[in-house]
Amino acid sequence: MIFQIENVLIFGTVQGSVLALLALGFSLVFGVGGVLNLGHGAFYLITCYVFYLIWRVLFFDLIISIILSLIIAIIVGGVVYLALIKPLQDSHIGIVIVTFAFAVFMQEFVKVIAGIKPHYISPFIFGSVEFLGVTFPIQFVFVIIGSLILVFLVGLFISKTKIGKSIRAVSQDREAALLMGINADRILMITVMISAFLAGMAAILYAPTSAITIDMGWSFLLSAFAVSVFGGMGSTSGCVLGAFIMGYAKTFCSVFISPTLATVFPLLVIVVMLLVRPQGLLGKKEV
Amino acid sequence: MPKKIRSKVSNTVSGTKNFFLGIPRATRNLYKEIPHQVKSFKEWIFTFRGSLTILCLIGTILVPLITMDDYIMTILISFLVFSIFAASWDLLAGYTGQVSFGHSVFFGIGAYVAAAFVKMAGLPWFFSMIIGAVAAILVGLIIGIPCLRLKGPYLALGTQAFSLILFNLFMSGELKDILGSTEGISALPAMSEAHIVTFFFILIIMVISFIILTIIVKSNIGTIFKAIRDDETAADASGINTTKYKLIAFMISGFFAGIAGGLFALNSRAVNPSVFLALYSFYAIVMVALGGIATISGSVVGAFIYWVILTELFKPMGALGTIFLYFPTLISALILIIMIRFADQGILKPALEHIREFYDFLLGR
Amino acid sequence: MGVILEVKNLTKKFGGLTAVNDFSFEIKRGEFVGLIGPNGAGKTTVFNLISGFEKPNSGSIRFDGMDITGLKPYQIVNLGLVRTFQLVRSFHYMSVLDNVSVACLSPRGKKASEKVGLDKYASRILSEVGLIDKARFPPVILPHGDLRRLEIGKAAGTNPQILLLDEPFSGLSYEEQEHIHALIRRLSNEGVTIFITGHVLRELMNLVPRVIAMHQGKFITDGSPQEVANHKLVLEAYLGRGGGIA
Ligand SMILES: Nc1ncnc2c1ncn2[C@@H]1O[C@H](COP(=O)(O)OP(=O)(O)O)[C@@H](O)[C@H]1O
Ligand SMILES: [Mg+2]
Predict the structure, then answer these.
(1) Which of A49, B88, B205, B245 is the most buried (most CB within 10 A)?
(2) C174, burial (CB in 10 Å: exposed 0-12, middle 13-18, buried 19+)
(3) Percentage above 90 pLDDT, chain B
(4) Optimal mutation site among B33, B148, B238, B245, interface C, most CBs of chain C within 10 A
C-alpha cells in the first residue's frame, strides 16, 4: 500500500510529462489561431512509425534517427498548416473536418505501410532503476527529464525570443498584434510546427516504453484536448499544470480504482469541464 | 440541492414531458403534408440528384436477378446499411448544423443493444433492432444535453470524446462480464434463411427510413433545423427554442443511426467494440460529403460510391496484397480533404454540383 | 394605455467599460419611440439587454407587467417582444419565404398563422414588406435594403406586441430609407409598439413623436424631437464627437 503511493508519484510524473508535451502544442495552436487541430494525434502517430522505421528498420544511429524523425514531424506540421489550415482559416468547422480526415488518412496510410500488427521500438538504453523503492525502466528517466527540459525551453522561447513574444501577442489580442505589424499567418505556421515538434518529442521519448499501434493517435489527441480544456485553452501554464494533475489523477485511478476508469478519465474531464467551467482552470478564453 | 439546479431539473422534466405529449400532434402535422410531398417527389425524380439516386437504387434491386453471389450481396447490404447511417448524420450535421464526430456512438449502441436482445432475450430481429434504435435515442439525449452548449469545433471534439469513452468501456477487461470486452457479442442467429431475403428486408427498411427522413427535413421542423444551422442566434431571435430542436435532431438522428447499427450487427451476426471507433464516424462524414451535404438522398449516392465503387475498385488488387483493402478509406480521406479544401463556396456546396450543371446542360435546361 | 415596457436602473459592464449606466425609461402600449445617441453610446447594448441576449449586471426589465430580466431570447420573443439586428442576420441557405416562415413557426407566430395557413401567412408578410416577388431567392443575393426589410419581416412573423428596431436605416440610400419609413409607419398604425434606434438625429426626427437620448451609457433626456435636438448635452454629445446633427 505504501509503495503504491510512490508508484503513483513516479508513473504519474511520467504520464504528466508526456501529456504536457502533447497538450502544450495543441493549446498553443488554439491560442494563436483559434484552431482545433484534430491531426495533432496523427503527429504523434507518424513520428512513432517514422522513428521506428529509421532506427529499427534502417538501423541508423539513435541520435541521427531522432533528429531525422523530428525534422519529418516538423515538415508534416508545416505541410498541414499550408495545405489544410491556412486555406480554411475562416471556417473553423472546415478545419476540424479536414484535420480529422488528415488523421484518418495518416492512420490508413500507416496501416498500408506497416500493417495492423503492433510494433515495438526498444528503449534507448535497456535496464531499470530503483527510486523510492519503485523499479522502473530507464526510459522513464528520459521521458521525465526530456519533457522538463523541453517545457522549460518552450517557456523561455515564448517569453524571451522575438517570435515567442509575437506568439504571445497574437494569442492575447489578434487585432492589436496585426496592427503592430505582426504576420499572424507566419506565427501560426511556426506554432503548428512547434506543436508537431513537441508531439514528435513526446513520441520519441514515450513510445519506446510500450507497443505502437495504428489507432493510438485518437487517444493522444483527446488526452491533449482534455488537458487543454482542463488547464484552459490557450494558457501555457494552465496546460502544464493540468497535464501533471491529469497524469497523477489517471495513475491514481489506475492503481487504486480501476484501469478502465483511468483510460476514460481524460474524456470524462472533457465532458465535465466543458459543462462546468468552459474557460478551464487558468484560461480566460471563452469556449 | 441548490435551488437553481432543482429548477433546471424540473424545467427539463416538464420540457421532456411536453415534448413527448407533442409527438402525436407533430405526427399529425407531418401526415397532413404528405400530398404536397408526393408532388415534390415527382419533380425530384427528374432532377439530377433524383435520377442518380433512383438509378443507384434500381441497380441495387436488379443485381439479385443477375447473381446471388454471397460476396456481392454482402457489399450491397453494407451499402444499404451505411446509407441509412450517412443520412442520419446528414440530418444532424447538414440540416441542423450540429457537426458530430461521435456518430459511431449511436451506431454502436444500436448494434450492441440489438445484438444483446436477439442473443439474450431471443427476441425477433426486427423488435431488437427497434429497441436498439430507441436505446440510441436515449443515448442521443444523454450526449445531446451536455453537448448542446458547445458550438462548432467543440461539439465535434466533445462528441468524439463520448465515442472514445464508450469504446474504452466496451473494450475493458474489467467489464467483460457485462459488455463482452474485445469479443463483443457473436454467433447471432441469421436474420433469415436466404441471403436474398435479408437483402430485401434491409432494402425495405432503408427505403422507408429515407422516406421518413426526407419528409422530416421538408416539413416545418426541417425548416426550423435549417434555421438553426444557418444562424442560431437569429433563430433564437425568431422565437425558436433552439435547445429543444437541437435535442430533437439528436434524437431523430440517433434513432436512424441506431437502426443502421442494429442492421449492421444483425447482418454480420456479430458485434465488437470497433463499431465505436472514430473510423465509423468518418464513414458517415465521407459518404455524406461524397453525395452532397444537406440533401438526405445524397447519402445513397455517397454510400454507393464508397461501398460499391471504391471498395470494388480495389478488390481485384486485394489479391496482390491485403494492403489494398485499406485503400478505399485512404482514398476517401484524401477525397474528403480535397473536397472541403477546395469547396470555394463553403462546405455546404455539394460536390456533385459541377456534374449537375453538365446534366442540366444535357437536358437542355 | 398601460405601460408595456419598463426599464429600471439598467447597468451593463464589459470589463472596465460601463456600456449602459443606470438607465431607466418607460414605454406605453402603442407608442412610437426613438432612442438616439452617437456611435458607441450603448443603444445596441440596451437592446441586447432587453431582448435577453446579454445579462445585465443590475437593474430590471418589465414587459407587459412581467419581470423578464434573465429570460432567454426566445422566451421573450414568445411573450411578444422582438428585436432586429443592426447587422442584419438572415438564414443564408434558405429562401426568403422560409426565412419568414421560421418566425411564423415560433409558438406566437404559429398561433397567428394557423388560421390562414403557414405559406399564405408568410407570403402576406412578404408582400407587406415588399419582398413577395423575391420569395424564392436566397437572402445572400439580395441588396442591403432588401435584407433590412427581410429583417423586419422576420420580426413581424412572430406577431409581436412591441418591435425593437436597431438602426434600420444605417447604410441605406434615401429611397430605401423611404421604403422602410413607410413600412414602420404602417406597423405602428396597426397598433404595434415601436422602439427604434438611430445614431443620426435627422433620420428619426420626422418619424417619431418621442425621443430618448443617451450618451456614454447614460440617460440624457426624454421628450419631443425638437426638445431633444436643442438639449445642451445632446448637442455636446454630437458636436463633441465631431458628428453633425443635421
Ligand atoms: N460584447 C462586448 N464586449 C465588450 N465591449 C462591448 C461589447 N458590446 C459593446 N461593447 C462596447 O459597449 C459600448 C456601447 O456599444 P453599443 O451598444 O454597440 O453602442 P451603439 O449601439 O450605441 O453604437 C461600445 O464602447 C462598445 O465597444
Ligand atoms: Mg449599435
Answers:
(1) B88
(2) exposed
(3) 33
(4) B238
Which stretch of DSSP H or E encloses residue C219?
Answer: strand C218-223
Q: Which ligand is nearest to the CA of C46?
A: 1
Hey, are the CB atoms on B329 and A108 less than 8 Å from each other? yes
- Distance (Å, rounded) from C-alpha B94 to C-alpha B102? 15
CATH class of domain segment(s) C1-80+161-246: alpha beta
Look at the alpha carbons of A42, A43, A48, A50 in this order and tell me if their dihedral is positive or negative: positive
Quote the pTM value.
0.87
Is C73 within 8 Å of C235 (Cβ atoms)? no
pLDDT tens profile B247-287: 999 999 999 999 999 999 999 999 999 999 888 998 998 88
A77, A42 Cβ separation under 8 angstroms: no
Which pLDDT belongs to residue B86? 95
Distance CA C80, CA C74 (A): 10
Residues B23-76 pLDDT 10s: 666 667 667 767 777 777 777 777 777 777 788 788 878 877 777 777 888 888
B92-124 pLDDT tens trace = 998 998 888 889 999 999 999 999 999 988 889
The residues spanned by each domain of chain C are 1-80+161-246, 91-158
State the pairing for strand pair C3-14/C58-63. Answer: antiparallel
- Please report the pLDDT score of residue B347 as a whole number: 44
Find the chain B residues whose C-beta atoms sit closer than 8 A to any C-beta of A: 99, 101, 146, 149-154, 156-158, 160-162, 164-165, 168-169, 172-175, 277-279, 282, 285-286, 323, 326-327, 329-330, 333-334, 336-337, 340-341, 343, 346-347
Chain-chain contact of A98 with B174 (C-beta, under 8 angstroms): no
Contact C82 B239 (CB under 8 A): yes
Q: Give every CB contact of residue B102 below 8 A, 6+ residues apart in sequence.
A: B143, B158, B159, B160, B161, B162, B163, B281
Q: Which pLDDT score, from 0 to 100, does residue B11 have?
A: 60
Residue pair A233/A280 in contact by the 8 Å Cβ criterion? yes
d(CA B255, CA B106): 8
- Kindly state the DSSP code that residue A52 receives in the 8-state scheme: I
Write out the H or E segment, with its range, that includes residue A130: strand A128-131
Question: What residue spans define the domains of chain A?
Answer: 2-119+135-276
Minimum Cα–Cα distance from A225: chain B residue: B157
Mean pLDDT, chain B, integer: 82
Asked whether at least 3 C-beta pairs link A and C within 8 Å, the reply is: no
Pick the CATH number of A2-119+135-276 from 1.10.287, 1.10.3470, 2.60.40, 1.10.10: 1.10.3470
Residue among B239, B241, B294 whose CB faces C158 most closely: B239
Going by the DSSP 8-state scheme, the letter that residue A36 receives in this structure is: -
Q: C43 near C35, Cβ under 8 Å?
A: yes
Name every chain C residue with its beta carbon within 8 A of the beta carbon of B220. 101, 105, 118
Q: Do B238 and C118 touch (CB under 8 A)?
A: no
Are the Cβ atoms of C102 and B223 closer than 8 angstroms? yes
Nearest residue of chain A to residue B342 (CA atoms): A87
Nearest-CB residue to B220 (from C53, C90, C118): C118
Q: Which atom of ligand 1 is nearest the CA belonging to C54?
A: 1
Q: Which ligand is nearest to the CA of C84?
A: 2
For the segment A113-138, what is each residue's pLDDT rounded down to a tens digit? 888 889 998 888 888 888 877 888 88
Beta bridge partners of C162: C81, C193
The type of residue at B108 is G
Contact C4, C27 (CB under 8 A): yes
Check pLDDT > 80 for residue C180: yes
Ligand 1 pocket list (CB less than 6 A)? C 14, 17, 19, 37, 39-45
Domain range annotation of chain B = 20-278
> For residue A183, which amino acid is it?
N
Read off the amino acid at residue A65.
S
